[in-house]
TrEMBL record:
Cofactor stoichiometry and binding remark: Binds 1 Ca(2+) ion. Required for its activity.
Protein name in the entry: Pectate lyase
Organism lineage string: Eukaryota, Viridiplantae, Streptophyta, Embryophyta, Tracheophyta
UniProt keyword Iron-sulfur present: no
A Pfam family the protein falls into: Pectate_lyase_4
Organism annotation: Arabidopsis thaliana (Mouse-ear cress)
Molecular-function annotations in GO: metal ion binding; pectate lyase activity
Cofactor: Ca(2+)
Top-level class of the enzyme under EC nomenclature: lyase
Catalytic activity: Eliminative cleavage of (1->4)-alpha-D-galacturonan to give oligosaccharides with 4-deoxy-alpha-D-galact-4-enuronosyl groups at their non-reducing ends
Keyword vocabulary terms for this entry: Calcium, Lyase, Metal-binding, Signal
Keyword Cell cycle carried by entry: no
Length: 307
């Protein structure tokens, strides 16, 4: 779930701002060898089709300002991927997500990206994709923000494990995230002014919400529960949310289930030994508004990568 990947002895590829051809992001993404991809210049890459990325790739936007538009990135049956410091905006077409993770992809880290205005989702994680971290990302101008677990018929999605931390959901309408079957650890995120709900737990989902800030706008209901019937079960079931030290502002209503149901939600310590949680506060809220999404950052000089 929460992971840090360091690729040693990687070939470093500098890519240019074109959709395809030698030296482009698309060409680098489909190469089979491990590759740390950096950018020679800033600019916008207008993708005419999904950009597929194979295993053992780091796409590192530090040092430049890179925006992807038109379509998005697809992670299909791959592992050990880092996507860092990119902007995604204006994806058009049926089933077009900013970052689409399916099927059977794992060990993926999406860090400090800005995502907005796609025709489908901003990040979708489905079809047995697992062990994924989304951190320090900025989400805005969108309806169905993040779907985790696609459909009640995909019972294999019970394997899904995702961590989302230090992200800012800025007025996105719903699905921050919506989860089916899997387990999601949410901590130190700031979600404000949602249009329907903040977080939805459906068919057998388990959400551990820890030290997040939920600031309501017109709609006050924070947690939503939808009942659906898994393909291998006789009765419909909802998901569960466990809230620990969350901060609810501007009349946000937790809408938590009472009784023993919270005890049925996993604890993150079952999957990783430590993580650093900050108290939800006005200070954290201010930091989240300026330190999430794309940042003007230099590339580090270690591992042979020049600034």
């Amino acid at each position: 779930m929460h992971l840090l990947i360091v690729f040693e002895d990687l070939e470093i590829g500098y890519v240019w701002i074109l959709d395809d051809g030698p030296g482009t992001l698309r060409e680098g993404g489909r190469r089979k060898e491990p590759l740390w991809i950096v950018f020679a210049v800033s600019g916008t890459i207008n993708l005419n089709s999904y950009l597929s990325v194979s295993s053992y790739k780091t796409i590192d936007g530090r040092g430049q300002r890179i925006k992807l538009t038109g379509k998005g990135i697809r992670l299909k049956e791959c592992e050990h991927i880092i996507i860092c410091n990119l902007e995604f905006e204006g994806g058009r077409g049926h089933d077009v997500d900013g970052i689409q993770i399916k099927p059977k992809s794992r060990h993926i880290w999406i860090d400090r990206c800005s995502l907005r205005d796609y025709d489908d989702g901003l990040i979708d994680i489905t079809r047995q994709s697992t062990d994924i971290t989304v951190s320090r990302c900025y989400f805005a101008q969108h309806d169905k923000t993040m779907l985790i677990g696609a459909d009640p018929s995909h019972v294999e999605d019970r394997c899904i494990r995702v961590t989302i931390h230090h992200c800012f959901f800025d007025g996105t309408r719903q699905r921050q995230p919506r989860l089916r079957f899997g387990k999601v650890h949410l901590y130190n995120n700031y979600t404000r002014n949602w249009g329907i709900y903040a977080v939805c737990a459906s068919v057998e989902a388990q959400v551990f919400s820890q030290c997040n800030i939920y600031e309501a706008g017109v709609k006050k209901k924070t947690f939503e529960y939808y009942s659906e019937k898994a393909a291998d079960k006789e009765e419909a079931r909802t998901g569960l949310v466990r809230s620990e030290n969350d901060l609810f502002l501007n009349g946000a209503q937790p809408s938590l289930m009472t009784g023993a149901s919270e005890e049925c939600v996993f604890h993150p310590s079952e999957h990783y030994p430590t993580w650093t949680v900050e108290p939800p506060s006005e200070t954290l809220k201010q930091i989240m508004q300026i330190c999430t999404g794309w940042q003007s950052l230099s590339r580090p000089s270690d591992h042979g990568v020049p600034k």
